[in-house]
Prior knowledge:
Layout (H helix, E strand, L loop, with lengths): L6 E4 L11 H4 L1 E4 L13 H11 L6 H13 L5 E6 L4 E7 L4 E2 L1 H4 L5 E12 L5 H7 L5 E3 L4 H7 L21 H17 L3 H14 L3 E4 L10 E4 L9 E7 L7 H9 L5 E7 L5 H4 L2 H4 L3 E4 L1 H11 L5 H6 L15
Parallel strand pairs: 1-3, 10-11, 11-12
Antiparallel strand pairs: 1-7, 2-6, 3-4, 4-6, 5-6, 8-9, 9-10
Helix pairs in contact: 2-3
Amino acid sequence: MMDQTAVWVVRGGNNNELASQVKPRNAVAIGWSSVGDIVKISSRDELRDAMESSDPGSGTPGSVGQLYRFAREIKIGDYILTPEKITAEIHISKCTGTYKYDASIFGSDYPHIRPVEYLNAAPRKYFTQTVRNTLGSTLTVFRADIALPYLEAFLGAGPVVPTGESEGPLEAGVWADDIDGQARGQILEALDNIEHHDFQTFVAGLLEALGYKTRVGKKGADGGVDVLAYPDTFGLEAPRIKVQVKNQKSSAGIQDVGYLNGVLATAERGLFVCTGGFTKDAENTPFVASGNVVLVDSNRLLDLILEHYEQLPSAAKMLLPLRRVYVPEKPVAD
């Protein structure tokens, strides 16, 4: 079975100055120029070390993750979207080549290049509000697979779908409920773009905000346990919590959840965090019903994040930077 074509958003420069150049140059580009050519770098750890060596402080998890995804995770044949603010269009391209370092195409500030075939430009309003919320993320490089059926329909490569133009005019005013829904969607998309080991660190930070002491497992084989959490500093008090995390689109099944349950000793409990949610058979297992293993999907995780964000350690906040904003509640009609 072939993998589904991925959809990526690659923003066009710090001030959107590159968006209009995607078509004539048949390429997209991003910055982080100080690190130089990364064609021989094969892991995030290597990339972080290179970024820190060239520009101390630049190797933050978010920056490393976005540059690594641009160079290594975008596949030939994937869609690449580049929003343009002035025209309110989304430029649609397909990736046609591997990463290269070339400062002659977009200039020395944007030397990291992926060749593309330019396909078309869609009006931003063509996409539904939900898709536009996702495309509105402030990240430079991120996945937006939610846009795939709309792209295929627009390009004549898939069935017709309801578009944003069919949603009707938006009600005047921007109210708390509207902003809350948009923000939750963008936060979930940002969570999806956190690399697996960094996601373990983030979940550990959330548990620390809840009052637990934690230890993050090493990269690689982990015996089904990504994070250990304890009520006390030394891990002597019960219950000890073994945590498995999966940052993925697909749901975790009964085999995944059962494996975690299988590594629990007496007086231990399991916590399974999966952004893709869980299958019904996983949710209905006896060890979940008894509370021996607790399941946390993306919505429950997001609720915990929003409730305890201020208490998160700085390392976790760096992985998911958020800012509190106040907006008015919608007036109640008389």
